[in-house]
Amino acid sequence: MSSSFCTRLALIYLLIGFQWLAPIDLSAQGQPDMGYFIGAGDILEIQVWDNDDLHRKVEVSQEGEFTYPLIGKVHASGLSVFGLETLIKDMLADGYLVSPQVTVSVAEYKSRKIFLFGEVKKPGTYFVRHKTHLLELISEAGGFADRAGRTITIVRPRSSLKSQGPVPLEEAKKNEIITVDRVRLTSGHADDSFFVSEGDSIYVSKAPRIFVTGKVEEPGEFKWEAGLTVHQAIILAGGPGTWGSSRRASIVRIENGVEKELEADMNDTVRPFDIIKVPSKGFFER
Length: 286
Prior knowledge:
CATH class of the largest domain: Alpha Beta
Oligomer: single chain
Largest sheet: 5 strands, mixed
Shape: rod-shaped
Order of helices and strands: HEEEEHEEEEHEEHEEEEHEEE
CATH topology of the largest domain: Outer membrane lipoprotein wza fold like
Structural class: alpha+beta
Distance between the termini: 39 Å
């Protein structure tokens, strides 16, 4: 059984487990999410029984407000769905309707933004409505890309006022930085650092690469893995071509900012960003 198949199987079991561990999302079951706290950008659907003319879809502004018939501006940001229902009911009952019955539901969850970048298949902005595991978010983004590395960096704003946009990595030091090991993430460990928060900017690193050039069947760029040898790197490139000599291969490596070309043994370990050069066969090798 291949290691990649085992990894996929582990992810499936892990995600099944999260369905039991995660809080129940009532809105996903066709019931209003009464515990959800409304924020700017959310789109709400409001109904008043026996008053079809008061049926509205409204968007909560950046100031946390919306306008509703009869009662004017309503401040919704920070209120739970249940709290907003009660507020609208009380405002309508104050001189407009007798014992109004109000129902509020969230038509679109737009306030709790999370920004996902890097080596996932669908990077972009995501919206969460309940406690969400990092692996669940990455699954929603189509999973890891082929070039995904081992390190995942979460930049979490320290301010209680969440940013409307992502936090660039160059500004990360101003905020809380959480480093997650991808291997540990996919191994089933339950850790609070594996749950995302509103305003997080998440960066999935690119795996280190190596390059194989010269007289090989498929020269190019390849993913580096710990313990990779020169021989294995040449095999990744399809092996030496008809006129290639793996015995005379060399490694081009940058050390302390200086580029060096080293003689290579087939069992030598390759480092990230090494260039393996396979020359033509010498006269006596043909």
